[in-house]
Every structure is written in structure tokens, then in C-alpha cells.
């Protein structure tokens, strides 16, 4: 049995890498992938804790997180495509329409 | 899960997660992300969450990632050339992430977090026990999720189709010109 702190530390590490990617990359698609990384890190924490407590609730929440991630990816990619059509860019720094 | 397997999967997932952040070609980032997702899926199965692990591999590693790949190809994205983003942003972002990691580790590493391992009941993590929970205790959330998916599909179609009047007019112009050129 792997100690719980190891799993939680791995989850924290992957989450931190996801935050790093979201903050430092300017390509919207890669920023999106970083968000997926963060979601997965939290999923790992849910599964690990649920497994140690012997309940199924963690896995049910992971199931819901996956569904929401699928919905988010669908809408987000549609937005990216429609932005690209109008402005021919996927760099977040080029999108300044809402900026004063 | 065997400890050696855990360390192997941990190394694979962290290295490929770094690959997502550090590589310049979006396709390579995406492939690294798939490796991370599959490593985490194996970890789920090792922790007893069998159905969720397989769902992770099929739905995440399969469907969602293929969607990403299609979008990258559709937009014809190449390797990012030259410096991307601001140095100051990268510096302060890295600093903030280091601080956050330190805080998370301080919170998670002490042994007080080790809960008493209760042992799994028979059928833990099976599709049977998952759906028992899903359709009794979490029924409302489950139904709301189905509405969410419906709204997401409608929203995606509404966003991705060409709707502006000028585009439609331009398309009509183009096709008229093409018809003239053909005749």
C-alpha cells in the first residue's frame, strides 16, 4: 500500500505544474491543457482519499469532474475556433478586445 | 498498488506533465498530456477505482484528447518561434507556483493526514457500486449533469457555426463568382 502523503504530494506536484503552465504559456490551447492537468491532479487526490476511507463518494465526484471537463473542453474549443476565425491567432496576448 | 509501480508512474506523470508546459509544439504538448492522463488512469486502477480508471483512459485519453488534436490540426498550429510571453510574467508566475507548492506540501506531507485504512468492501470500485451511489445518493446531480452536457453541445454548435450576416453574404458572393467562372 502506498502511503497517502505520497499520493497527495504527487497530486500537489501535478497541480503546481498545471498552474505553472497556465501562468507562463500564452497559447490558449496549451493553457487549456494545463487546466486539464489541474483537474486530473485533483481527481487523483479524490480517488486516493476515497480509497483510504473506503467510500465510493470520491469516485462519484471524479465521475462528475470528468463530465464537467468534457463540457468545458467542448465549449472552450468552440470558442477558440470562433476566435481564430475572426482574428487568426491563438495567442492570449493578442486578444485585447475587452481591454481598455 | 505496489510501491515500485507508484514511483514509476509518479516519475512518468511528473515528467510528461513538465513536457506539457515546456514544449513548444502544441501537438507534442498534447501527446505529453495523454501520457500523463494514462499514468494517472493506471494509478486510479491501482487504488481500486477500476471503473473510473478505465473511464479516464477512454473518455479523457481517448475522446477529449482527440478533440484537442483535431482542433490543433484544424487551426494548423505550428511550433512557436521566438520568445513567447513576458519574462516578468514567467518569473513571477514561477515564484508564485513555488510558494503554492511549498504551502501544499506543508499541508499534505505531515503524517497526521494518514487516515486509518478501513479496507475495501467486496466490489469496491466496480461499476455496480459506482452506479448504486450514482443513482441513489447523487441522482439529482446526475440529472443536472445531463442537462449540462446538453447545454454544452448546443452552445458548442452555436459558437462554432458561421452566423454573422457578412460571412453568409460573402459565402454567397464567392459561390456566385465560382458559378460564373465555371460557365
Describe this structure in words.
The complex is a heterodimer of chains A (100) and B (183). Chain A is mainly alpha-helical and 100 residues long. Chain A has helices at residues 4-24, 28-53, 57-87. Chain B has 183 residues and is an all-alpha fold. Chain B has helices at 3-22, 26-46, 50-75, 87-108, 127-134, 139-160, 165-182. In chain B, helix 1 packs antiparallel against helix 2 and helix 2 packs antiparallel against helix 3 (50-75). The N and C termini of chain B lie far apart (71 Å).
What descriptive keywords fit this protein?
heterodimer, A: about 100 residues, elongated, B: about 180 residues, mainly alpha, Four Helix Bundle (Hemerythrin (Met), subunit A), 7 helices
Describe the structure in brief:
Chain A is built from three helices and no strands. With 100 residues, chain A is mainly alpha-helical. In chain A, helix 1 runs antiparallel to helix 2 (28-53) and helix 2 (28-53) runs antiparallel to helix 3.
Amino acid at each position: 500500500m502506498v502511503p497517502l502523503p505520497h499520493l497527495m504530494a504527487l497530486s500537489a506536484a501535478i497541480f503546481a505544474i498545471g498552474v505553472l503552465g497556465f501562468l507562463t504559456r500564452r497559447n490558449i490551447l496549451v493553457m487549456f491543457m494545463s487546466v486539464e492537468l489541474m483537474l486530473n491532479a485533483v481527481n487523483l487526490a479524490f480517488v486516493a482519499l476515497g480509497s483510504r476511507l473506503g467510500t465510493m463518494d470520491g469516485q462519484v465526484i471524479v465521475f462528475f469532474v470528468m463530465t464537467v471537463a468534457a463540457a468545458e473542453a467542448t465549449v472552450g474549443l468552440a470558442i477558440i475556433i470562433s476566435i481564430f476565425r475572426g482574428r487568426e491567432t491563438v495567442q492570449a496576448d493578442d486578444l485585447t478586445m475587452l481591454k481598455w | 498498488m505496489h510501491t515500485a509501480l507508484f514511483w514509476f508512474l509518479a516519475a512518468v506523470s511528473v515528467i510528461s506533465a513538465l513536457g506539457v508546459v515546456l514544449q513548444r509544439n502544441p501537438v507534442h504538448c498534447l501527446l505529453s498530456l495523454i501520457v500523463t492522463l494514462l499514468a494517472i488512469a493506471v494509478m486510479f486502477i491501482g487504488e481500486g477505482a477500476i471503473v473510473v480508471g478505465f473511464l479516464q483512459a477512454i473518455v479523457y485519453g481517448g475522446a477529449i484528447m482527440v478533440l484537442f488534436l483535431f482542433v490543433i490540426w484544424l487551426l494548423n498550429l505550428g511550433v512557436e518561434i521566438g520568445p513567447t510571453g513576458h519574462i516578468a510574467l514567467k518569473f513571477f508566475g514561477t515564484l508564485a507556483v513555488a510558494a503554492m507548492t511549498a504551502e501544499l506540501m506543508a499541508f499534505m506531507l505531515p503524517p497526521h493526514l494518514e487516515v486509518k485504512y478501513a479496507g475495501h468492501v467486496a466490489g469496491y470500485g466496480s461499476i455496480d457500486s459506482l452506479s448504486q451511489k450514482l443513482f441513489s445518493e447523487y441522482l439529482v446531480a446526475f440529472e443536472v449533469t445531463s442537462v449540462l452536457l446538453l447545454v454544452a453541445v448546443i452552445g458548442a454548435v452555436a459558437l462554432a457555426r458561421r452566423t454573422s450576416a457578412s460571412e453568409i453574404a460573402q459565402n454567397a458572393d464567392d459561390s456566385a463568382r465560382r458559378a460564373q467562372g465555371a460557365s
